[in-house]
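Student:
Attend to each token:
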Amino acid sequence: MEKKHIISICGELASGKGTVSKLIAEKLNFTIYCNGDYFRSLGKEMGMDVTTFNDYVKEHPEIDRQIELNAKNYAKEHDNFVIDARLGWYVVPESFKIYLKVDINEAAKRAFEDNKRKYSENLATIEEQKADMQKRYLIENERYYNLYGVRKEDESNYNLVIDTTNFTPQEVAGKIIEEYQKWIKE
């Protein structure tokens, strides 16, 4: 399979995908394609928070398929970008595939303190945030398995797996760039 200058970043909720994607794009002068922003905006348009919309999409798989198809088509026509998407590794197999994981307690804290998330997941406490994230994780995993037969948390799907719990986004981005540059030269 021919390699493309595309880095797909998948990972657990609040593992740093968005922040790390931006840092990588800046350093490599890449653009970003973000499925999550599109997904959240669709939910918002329908008056749903992100977890409720996840449940809705489970019953309307055509929405999920269209989101992934858009990413796949974008990759056919573009190069030099970071794809921030849960299934980016799956729909763009010629990309350098990253999985970011994080301790759930750290993830809940990050998400709760992230003001950009408030429009789609406005929860009252960190514990509510944690419970909501665990629910979303299960919904997504079931949905992706039922639709595509894949498990996004299966680490064998990726070229690189990083636990971001105790690292800064800059450290994570630096490691990804280092490994990507080795991969692209192989």
In short: The mean pLDDT is 91. Strands lie at 6-11, 31-34, 81-84, 96-101, 160-163. The radius of gyration is 16 Å. DSSP finds eight helices and five strands in the chain.
